[in-house]
Amino acid sequence: MKQIEEQAVKCLFYSAEIVTLHTVMIHFTVTKEQVCPFVVEKEGTTVPFSIKSWQEWERGAIAFIQFDDPLELGVEYKLRQKNHEQTHLIKVGRVVRTEAFDQQYVYNGELGALYSHERTVFAVWTPVATEVSLLLYENWHTLEAIEYQMKRSPNGVWSVSLDGDLHQYCYLYRAKVNGKWKTTVDPYAKSVTVNGEKGVIFDLKRTDPASWPTVHPIPPEHTIIYELHIRDATVYPGSGHHKKGTYLSLAEQNTCGPWGESTGLSYIRELGVTHLELLPVADYGSVDEANREKEYNWGYDVVHYFAPEGSYASDPYDGVTRVKELKQLIAQCQRMDLRVILDVVFNHVYVMKESPFEKFVPGYYFRYDGEGNLADGTGVGNDIASERLMVRKFIVDCVTYWASEYRVDGFRFDLMGIIDQMTMKEVKRALAPINRQILLLGEGWDLETPLENDQKTTLAQARAVPFLHFFHDTFRDAVKGSTFDLNKGGFCAGNIELKETLIASMLGHEAQFDRPSQAIQYVEAHDNHTLWDKLQFVFPDEEEEVLRACHRLATAIVLTSQGIPFLHGGQEFFRTKHGEGNSYNSPDWINQLDWSRRAIYAADVEYVKGLIALRKAHRAFCFSTFSEVNTHMCPLKTPSEVIGFHYHHIAKWGPWDEMVVLHNGGGDKVDIRLPASGEWEVIVDGKKAGLVPLYTFNGHTVSVQSRSSMVLYRLNE
């Protein structure tokens, strides 16, 4: 049994908690035989009970007492030894993790500060609180609050309505839970003041951009994702941006780098990707917003899920500014035909004990193991219990809010394997009326959390959730090499151990997925080493040109494979983090996009642009079904260091009917026999790529240079 914390004062009752709606567990400081008669009181009235069973613990006895009628939460129950006045509070405990609690206190209405010009209604769910009040502040820097008592409904929602226009007022909640008063920000707060100190009430309509662009949806298989951190994108001294590291900085157009080359959004649009995936923009706790230039974080330690992060705003003190400026950035991206995906973190919270979740309903929002210990599958101290009804509601409410209010085009779920499938299905169902084409993707890693395997949203369960897209680490490791052994390269570095696995992965991995586009094909992302840094470990003594060739090969494999290609920002100009593999809180000089490399490696950037243009021009690279893959793609018989595919009867999807794609991971030139002789136009080789033929080849055998790709199509006879 879990160790109980020692109390400072010895008494008959050591601790007592409600464990089910009909059961209380009492720890005594004496043995069963020494326990004196006692009573249970609710607001001074004695409540009848029976003793169900006894156990022992190291300091005395444990009694489980039973009640015929369900215990009423939201009021205080106390123990009292007969003929004594002193009472002992019975705390609300693990009852909150029972199905009966979930069913009795589930609430389907709106929560948060519901603003209108005439009045604002405040609603917060905390069925275990015995008193709740609203603290209202005139602005962010007001110290004294006006306090309003809130009223409780049977399902545990406390509410109060205030007349008048409260635009830009601030607020907190004060709740009495288990006998202690706790003050906290509303978990549904739509914005917060500097460092999340207070929630902000405001008129959302006043935060909209002058106009929202019309976004034309595309099928998932046509997606090409580019991952970016708000600050990384512009903080480099030579990026050409003003107000560096902010929403507005990234929204700037026509920015130029040190040699006049495009940077920022203008550059990303030129690259040709379809979606911009932003690392978390919800308010997180690890950067002091009042001193933001001196601190850095990726943002995976979210505190306030509905509110934008303030360190990216021009004024972090004003809660409305961050909302306006993030909306401006999203609208600007969409005007440039860049759809926006938000990275969301519903697997853990920053500091569990300080979170509004734990203050309002202790023990409910998080998973516990059979011994009563917090689960830690995430590796950061807590796992969010998405399967509980009000946690699921919170997640669904949150993503639908971002989708409708910020008009985003997709969500990337961090550590999605922690989240249960039913919640993800509810997310999809709730988003459909807002944006039927919205893209949902995530990390399907199987982590050790107390949830049945067939309920987890993992790669192994991908077929059960066909609307989701999964980061395909099998593909990544086969191309790039081991994530955990830096010296071991993958196919792009000449390692052919996983060649057959890679071939299956490049075809969309039918054994794993319901359709090819479920696979997110990538070789690097924000976490772990960049491919460039990895290659420097694999080839410590090789010339730079060898590393560049391997890198181009890897990116060519990503962009010519079935599935959804994913590029890490700066990958195309060999992004480096100077050997750092976990840069979540590293300084700017490690994390920034070094825009000088965009100029230095301009030819390599053009190579990637050409591959993207090719993929968009011929949709045989992005089949929607495995039937199409199996009918029109055939792996070629090749030497061990080469992977090849023959595409045939593909005129329906693009400008030519027959195509061959070859990837040589070896260190030597290799001759490959083509499916047929005749005239072939080469449009991709090791250094150039695009739609304009590089040269015409006539014959049956073609030479593929070392560490390079080749794409060629056959001219019609």
Q: Helical proportion?
A: 10-25%
Principal-axes shape call: elongated
Can you tell me the CATH superfamily of the largest domain?
Glycosidases
Mean pLDDT: 96
**Annotated CATH topology of the largest domain:** TIM Barrel
Q: What does the radius of gyration come to? A: 29 Å
What percent of residues are in strands? 25-35%
The total beta strand count reads 35
Number of helices: 16
In the CATH hierarchy, what is the architecture of the largest domain at level 2?
A: Alpha-Beta Barrel
Biggest sheet, spatial arrangement of strands: 4-3-7-8-1-2-6-5
Poorly predicted residue ranges: 1-10
Q: Pairing-aware structural class of the strands and helices?
A: alpha+beta
**Largest sheet: number of strands, sense, barrel closure:** 8 strands, mixed
Distance between the termini: 79 Å
Number of domains: 4
Main CATH class of the largest domain: Alpha Beta
